Amino acid sequence: MDTTNADLIAIKQKMAKTNDLFNTEVFGKRNFDALDQIYTTDAHILPPGAPPTSGRQAIKGFWSGLIQSVNAKSAVLESVKVMPTGDGVVEIGKALLTIEPPGQAQSQIDVKYVVFWREEDGRWKWHVDIWNMNA
Amino acid sequence: MDTTNADLIAIKQKMAKTNDLFNTEVFGKRNFDALDQIYTTDAHILPPGAPPTSGRQAIKGFWSGLIQSVNAKSAVLESVKVMPTGDGVVEIGKALLTIEPPGQAQSQIDVKYVVFWREEDGRWKWHVDIWNMNA
């Protein structure tokens, strides 16, 4: 598949919509069912400090556990580089997480990530998601 | 581009060759010029605990510094999932690093990674490389 400029602008808009859902719905409202619109059914996550996890149901368990345990408030994602490839897209991005663990002050964490995106049911979703911290 | 099974087998063999060079030449012999055959010219790495770095020259500086500072001995890479996409490949893998920092016993570190591969000058190389630790 050749991706034209017009295609790419449309894809980037859909990607931004998915990334925004992760912040507003998953982190902001703890609506973990929104992850159905963010990850493909057979997605893979590779979180730092934990084993890799595959499949959307297991991924929902991961985020639900992590967000509640550190009392996460927001995850603002920013695309740094978007590389269309075949039917997918490889994205390099950065994120700013805000957390407020019980008994601790609110703090922010700089994260960088790579996501391999695929289209599923008319939405652009995360098929492979790996991240780490800058410090 | 549609990747046939025969193509994919050939690509996987070339990928294994690149991954092996990283272990034997870069880690084993500290031949950092071998990184020319491993990373694309404008590659990106996203190392844990450090800012992202772009461009092969800067990447050579990163690996040269890290390998010497922790006295790294080997990095055995294993492909876990290989996903052809357009002209590239997205690989999920795991690595076992062996290090022996000055004054410390030899130890091993479990790493997982995602690499976005592209072909350059007839070789399959790492264009985007991100990793983190399981523990």
How would you sum up this structure in a few lines?
Two copies of one chain form a homodimer. Helix content of chain A is 28%, strand content 45%. Chain A is of the alpha+beta class and 135 residues long.
Describe the protein's architecture and organization.
- 2 copies of one chain form a homodimer.
- With 135 residues, the first copy, chain A, is α+β, with helices and mostly antiparallel strands.
- Chain A has a single domain, classed as Nuclear Transport Factor 2, Chain: A (Roll), CATH 3.10.450.50.
- Helix content of chain A is 28%, strand content 45%.
- Chain A contains 2 helices and 6 strands; from the N terminus they run H-E-E-H-E-E-E-E.
- In chain A, strands 2-1-6-5-4-3 form a 6-stranded mixed beta sheet, with helices on one face.
- In chain A, a hairpin with a 2-residue loop joins strand 3 and strand 4.
- The N and C termini of chain A lie far apart (38 Å).
- The mean pLDDT of chain A is 95.
- The interface between A and B is medium-sized, with 29 and 29 residues.
SSE arrangement:
Two copies of one chain form a homodimer.
Chain A: H1 5-28, E1 39-46, E2 53-54, H2 56-69, E3 72-85, E4 88-99, E5 107-120, E6 123-133
Parallel strand pairs in A: 1-6
Antiparallel strand pairs in A: 1-2, 3-4, 4-5, 5-6
Oligomer: homodimer
Molecular shape of chain A: globular
Total beta strands of chain A = 6
Mean pLDDT of chain A: 95
Instruction: Give the helices and strands of chain A as they follow along the chain.
Output: HEEHEEEE
Strand content of chain A: over 45%
- CATH fold-type name of chain A: Nuclear Transport Factor 2, Chain: A
What's the architecture of chain A in CATH terms? Roll
> What is Rg of chain A?
15 Å
| Class from helix and strand fractions of chain A | alpha+beta
Strand count, sense and barrel status of the largest sheet of chain A are:
6 strands, mixed
Strand order of the largest sheet of chain A: 2-1-6-5-4-3
The helix content of chain A, as a percent range, equals 25-40%
Query: What is the first-to-last residue Cα distance of chain A?
Result: 38 Å
Count of individual domains of chain A: 1
Report low-confidence residues of chain A grouped into runs of 5 or more: none
